[in-house]
Specification:
The protein is elongated, with a radius of gyration of 22 Å. The protein is α+β, with helices and mostly antiparallel strands. Helices cover 30% and strands 23% of the residues. The chain folds into 2 domains: 66 residues; 44 residues, no CATH class.
């Protein structure tokens, strides 16, 4: 019997396709990704190719579709709205909020223009007193 691959899902980018491939393989279903490199390197071809395709063997179609439907949708955890209570690096509770004068610079201007970011986006800077790790939380 020939193992024919069929497309069970398409994605706008390779990252989401890789995540779903990992979910299928965790269920014991071999999965393959088609057009990953083409769409990643030449995103303007997305419409021509129909996106990044997730494929499985024809005999695994039903199991794969059930596994995909049972999986949780993609989500992004929101940024914390309060003062972080521990360092994300060493998990120490010795965290302080550091403030600095927010002077516009050429680098921040370029970043804002290139990422279509509002220049007035509030940014909070934190430092861990235990390990010295520094991080930024954008509100």
């Amino acid at each position: 019997m020939e193992n024919k691959l069929i497309t069970i899902a398409t994605f706008p980018d390779a990252l989401k396709a890789q995540i779903m491939r990992g979910r299928l393989e965790a269920e014991g279903i071999p999965a393959f990704i088609a057009d990953e490199h083409t769409i990643t390197n030449q995103p303007y071809l997305y419409m021509a190719y129909g996106g990044v395709r997730l494929q499985v063997a024809e005999q695994d179609r039903e199991r794969a579709q059930q596994a995909l439907q049972a999986s949780e949708p993609f989500s992004v955890d929101p940024a914390p709205e309060h003062f972080p209570d521990q360092c994300p690096n060493c998990h120490s509770p010795k965290v302080t909020e550091t403030t600095s004068i927010n002077q516009p610079s050429l680098l921040s201007l370029l970043r804002n223009v290139l990422t279509f970011r509002d220049p007035q986006t509030p940014v909070r800077r934190f430092t861990c007193a235990n390990c010295g790790y520094k991080w930024i939380v954008e509100n």
